[in-house]
Amino acid sequence: MIFRLDRFLSECDASMTRKSAKALLRDGAVSVNGVVVRDAACKVNTETDAVTVGGKAITYMQFRYFLLNKPAGVLSASRDRHASTVLDLIDGISGEFFPVGRLDKDTEGLLLITNDGALAHELLSPKKHVPKTYIAVCSGTVGEEACERLQAGVDLGDFTSAPAKVRKMAEGTETTTLAITITEGKFHQVKRMVAAVGSEVQYLRRVRMGGLWLPLDLSTGTYRELDGETLKKTLYQDEINDDERLLRSYL
To answer: Which CATH number do you get for residue 110?
Structure first.
């Protein structure tokens, strides 16, 4: 395949955008076939050209990215002998693909499927603090004191959750709907946090990961393929709009 050099660099490194690739080019850190190249528009052939960054050879591997609106009842796994997995919902992909993180079997919503291990590591690293927002329908009334405890962090026995952002979206006598944003991804974390303040999650849906929101027109069980460069820019954008009107569109 033939790419512009800046795109080639960003495709080879999940943490690199075309902007940062151009900075490397300006600094003279990139060579093609032994010659320093500063032109971002220079064309490289992935089959025949040798590209180095800082003297280190880099190899192109074609990555693909799918955004799935995961339905309940499907496992967030690459394969399972007894149950259907999220990979079964994506046409034409092989066993090298995997979900980025996990959603419980009965949890719905945004899930990335890719073969890009570097990007998955970036998103799941505790050091990155990538925010994830969930809509949680909880049993009974979740009062202000309980919401404050969730926001401050609650003791879950094996660890204390990091401070969360909590918004009360709807409240009745039987259920309370919360929008909960966390920066961790421990096993059953949102459910355990809610249980720790005396309620129970009856329905859970992830609607955001980083700057990527679940498209409102993407029906449950369907997916769309994303461009890698656009995805990275969206995930890591500096300012994330999470106003209440946007959150309410998922109710």
So the answer is: 3.30.2350.10
Helix, strand or coil, per DSSP, at residue 67: strand
For the chain, give the number of residues.
251
Domain that holds residue 141: 63-251
Note if 238 is an active site residue: no
Task: Let me know: does 134 contact 179? Beta carbons within 8 Å.
Answer: yes
Nearest to 137 by CA among 55, 45, 72: 72
Q: What is the CATH number of the domain that holds 8?
A: 3.10.290.10
pLDDT for 77-120, tens place per residue?
Answer: 988 888 899 999 998 887 789 999 889 999 999 999 999 998 89
Which residue among 27, 49, 80, 104 is the active-site one? 104
Residue 51, beta-bridge partner list? 32, 58
Unique residue bearing structure tokens 């919902």 = 89
